[in-house]
UniProtKB/TrEMBL annotation:
PANTHER family, A to Z: DNA DAMAGE-REPAIR/TOLERATION PROTEIN DRT100, LEUCINE-RICH REPEAT-CONTAINING N-TERMINAL PLANT-TYPE DOMAIN-CONTAINING PROTEIN
The protein, known as: Leucine-rich repeat-containing N-terminal plant-type domain-containing protein
Subcellular location, record wording: Cell membrane; Membrane
SUPFAM superfamilies: L domain-like
Coiled-coil region(s): none
Length: 704
């Protein structure tokens, strides 16, 4: 694009070093010499622009057309300014407006802020692209856009006000308009119908209300319509089905009601249909089966119903992801679904589906994610028998089905790639089955809220990747097996580092007690944890528990554990939650536990503990409820003061664990975790070089 320029001066590094004094002098005297080819007005404008932004490494010594992020046309006028991710901070200087021949401007991913004044872009004769995405610029949209504009990306800024109806009248060439992630309010105006070139309209995550404008059918060129995360209401409406060039229709997270447009099948090029989290009702329109190019179909969290097997999925040869969880679909699993050979993920959880899982599921060679939880499927033996021979399955969530059945004790083998197995809340009988031992890739096992009895087998320690085990709410007896403390992914950082946690095709949802769903898009957000609460476990807590260095959540509550709390728990420096409540524990609370700087939830209520409650560190943040039901405990926060002749606390193991900054931030970090104020805390968490978890999980979670 830039023709080679004759060199008036040799400007290699070597010469610069040798003659730098002379050269700089010459440059100062005759700046026009060296950059004879760079338009001086443009250069002045750029240099003036750069005075605001020290991170720009533009050097006045060379031709401005070769500066980082600049391109010129054949008349050596600056036509492109592309300086994303340059840490530019401050307001947009008006000197930018003097680059009158600019056609392409990319300032995305900086820290630009302040008001974009009216008419800011009016001096440009030929501007066709503005990308200001990911900054903090504000303003309202009337009158700031030039007539030549084709592509506008203002997403993720602080623009406000209403979206003016005149955009397409003023800027008829518009092809891409992305105003998502701002603070726009009011209705989406009529007027987009005049945008005869518009292909992408993205207004998601604003505060838009009202319905989809009725002249939307005029935007025949539209390929991507994306309005998620607003408060849009009324029916989606049939007009949208005139947009026959649509490739994606993304309307999730609104309050749309009524049915899915009956003629949606007219959108025969549609690849992505995301209508989840709305108030849609009725059945799946039969015409949908004409959208044969669909790759992603997400209808989760609506009130759609009807017998799922009444719908013919067989034309969806490219369908990869289908999510229809949290609806009212009934009937059995539709056979035609198993003809969609491209499927990698299916979620049908929380519906009214029934029947059995049949071998036709094995016809889906790429299926990796299957969640059918919270329906009324029957015959777990057959289900596991079939599914275990599926070689690609990594996530299997069958919780809340198969009520009162018995877990097969043997005869299951395979599941060679399985990473998540969730069978919680099924009220299953039986023992912890030996075939779990063959799940060598498993990372998460949830068998909570069942009727499982017998002991916790020591061979669980042979599962090399298991970092989350939930056996809570069962009838398990016997002791805490010492072998469990050697679970490799909980005991060795090296092992945990090698556990691949980036494989979910769909997010998983975990519903903790008294809280809304926590969503995990990747398991990187899920804390290493062991839940054994509400069983009949007895005996001491083994001192070897100190091996489980990486554990974040340890819940042993509501059992019959006795003896003292081992001081080795203070070795578990990652602990965020420790619940030992409602056991038969005695002795003192080891004061070394105050070295647990991330502990934000601690409960030893209803035991037989005695002595002084430790003070300092996170212990200054715990309340009465953590200690009640232990008549022998004294000191704050309990009312009971300790007699002055109480025994001195046991010596604190005083080896320093990590840099001092963590010592200082400890209570603050505990606060971050406990109250989930993630954003403000993230910077501090990065300092601590530790895996960051959005929120720790309380007990009785169900995976869906
Ligand atoms: C921009 O243009 C205006 C008017 O043409 C002029 O007064 C001003 O000095 C210019 N600014 C720069 C930085 O070139
Ligand atoms: C200027 O910075 C950009 C990226 O920020 C880099 O690619 C370029 O090499 C730098 N130029 C000089 C001369 O340092
Ligand atoms: C650059 O802009 C000026 C007006 O600012 C205009 O007269 C000129 O034609 C433009 N040059 C090119 C090459 O577009
Ligand atoms: C602007 O730069 C960002 C970051 O490099 C890039 O992702 C984006 O596509 C660019 N915008 C345009 C319109 O090319
Ligand atoms: C946007 O700016 C124009 C002109 O400055 C003003 O008339 C209008 O009221 C503003 N709109 C909003 C919603 O602030
Ligand atoms: C969205 O708009 C409503 C009124 O229309 C207002 O009450 C609410 O605070 C706004 N929310 C945000 C996040 O701006
Ligand atoms: C769907 O919801 C609307 C109200 O939003 C109601 O009028 C209609 O009867 C419902 N249809 C069905 C099939 O439930
Ligand atoms: C699917 O499209 C064909 C023509 O392309 C049409 O004949 C048929 O009626 C459509 N099916 C449905 C269910 O809309
Ligand atoms: C399947 O697609 C073909 C076109 O590819 C269409 O003719 C047929 O009607 C579709 N079948 C169903 C059941 O919609
Ligand atoms: C299970 O489904 C019922 C309705 O069928 C719903 O109320 C409940 O919240 C669902 N449970 C979970 C854990 O999703
Ligand atoms: C499971 O067993 C319990 C208690 O025996 C009974 O109340 C419940 O109805 C049974 N549930 C099913 C689905 O069979
Ligand atoms: C505490 O952790 C260290 C590793 O940092 C380990 O070697 C030691 O065995 C652990 N102590 C106990 C009591 O588990």
């Amino acid at each position: 694009m830039v023709p080679p320029k004759p060199l008036l001066f040799p400007t290699t590094k070597h010469h610069l070093l040798k003659f730098d004094g002379l050269l700089i002098m010459l440059l100062l005297l005759f700046p026009a010499f060296v950059d004879a080819d760079c338009n001086t007005d443009d250069k002045d404008s750029l240099l003036s622009f750069a005075t605001n932004f020290p991170t720009l490494n533009w050097s006045a010594m060379v031709d401005c057309c070769s500066w980082d992020g600049i391109s010129c046309d054949k008349h050596d006028r600056v036509v492109r300014l592309s300086i994303p991710k340059r840490r530019l901070r401050g307001t947009l200087p008006s000197s930018l407006q003097n680059l009158t021949n600019l056609s392409f401007l990319n300032l995305s991913n900086n820290f630009l802020s302040g008001l974009l004044p009216d008419g800011f872009f009016s001096s440009f004769n030929n501007l066709h692209t503005i990308d200001l995405s990911d900054n903090y610029v504000h303003g309202n949209l009337s009158n700031i856009l030039p007539a030549t504009i084709k592509e506008i990306n203002f997403s993720s800024n602080s623009f406000f006000g209403t979206i003016p109806p005149s955009i397409c009248i003023n800027s008829p060439a518009l092809v891409i308009l992305d105003l998502s992630l701002n603070y726009f309010t009011g209705n989406i105006p009529q007027g987009f119908g005049t945008c005869s070139n518009l292909q992408v309209l993205s207004l998601g995550f604003n505060n838009l209300t009202g319905k989809i404008p009725t002249d939307i059918n005029g935007v025949r060129s539209l390929q991507h319509l994306s309005l998620p995360g607003n408060s849009l209401t009324n029916e989606i409406g049939e007009k949208i089905t005139s947009l026959t060039n649509l490739r994606s229709l993304v309307l999730f997270g609104n309050m749309f009601s009524g049915s899915i447009p009956l003629n949606i099948g007219k959108l025969s090029l549609l690849e992505k249909l995301e209508l989840h989290i709305n108030r849609l009702n009725g059945t799946l329109p039969l015409s949908l089966m004409n959208c044969t190019k669909l790759k992603i179909l997400n209808l989760r969290v609506n009130s759609l119903g009807g017998r799922l097997s009444d719908f013919d999925f067989s034309n969806f040869t490219q369908l990869a992801i289908v999510d229809m969880g949290e609806n009212q679909f009934g009937g059995v699993l539709p056979k035609s679904l198993f003809l969609c050979r491209s499927l990698t993920a299916i979620r049908l959880s929380t519906n009214k589906l029934e029947g059995e899982i049949l071998p036709d599921i094995l016809e889906l060679p790429s299926l990796s994610f299957l969640s059918l939880s919270n329906n009324t499927f029957k015959n777990i033996i057959q289900a596991l028998d079939i599914l275990s021979s599926h070689e690609k399955l990594t996530t299997l969530i069958l919780s809340k089905n198969f009520f009162n059945e018995t877990l097969p004790a043997a005869g299951i083998s395979g599941f060679q790639d399985l990473k998540i197995l969730a069978l919680g809340g099924c009220k299953l009988f039986g023992h912890i089955p030996i075939w779990l031992m063959s799940l060598t890739n498993v990372q998460v096992v949830d068998l909570s809220v069942n009727n499982i009895n017998g002991i916790i087998p020591g061979w669980l320690q042979t599962l090399p990747n298991l970092f989350c085990l939930d056996l809570s709410n069962n009838s398990l007896s016997g002791s805490f097996p010492v072998e469990l403390t050697r679970l490799p992914a909980l005991a060795s950082q090296h092992v945990l580092d090698h556990v691949n946690i980036n494989y979910l095709e769909l997010p998983v949802f975990v519903a903790p007690e008294n809280a809304s769903y926590l969503q995990y898009n990747q398991l990187v957000g899920f804390p290493p944890s062991l839940y054994l609460a509400s069983n009949n476990l007895r005996g001491g807590i083994p001192v070897e528990i100190g091996n489980m260095q990486l554990i974040h959540v340890l819940d042993l509550s509501q059992n019959y554990f006795s003896g003292t709390i081992p001081g080795s728990i203070s070795n578990l420096t990652n602990l965020e939650m420790l619940d030992l409540s409602r056991n038969l524990l005695s002795g003192e609370i080891p004061s070394s536990l105050k070295g647990l700087h991330f502990l934000s939830s601690f409960n030893v209520a209803f035991n037989n503990l005695l002595g002084a409650i430790p003070t300092g560190g996170q212990f200054d943040t715990f309340l009465n409820q953590s200690y009640e039901g232990n008549p022998g405990l004294c000191g704050p926060p309990m009312q009971r003061s300790c007699s002055k002749r109480s025994d001195p606390p046991p010596p604190v193991s005083e080896h320093k664990k990590g840099p001092d900054i963590i010592m200082i931030l400890g209570p603050f970090l505990g606060f971050c975790f406990g109250f989930g104020i993630i954003l403000t805390c993230q910077a501090f968490l990065i300092l601590s070089e530790r895996r960051i978890f959005p929120k720790w999980i309380h007990r009785y979670v169900i995976w869906t």
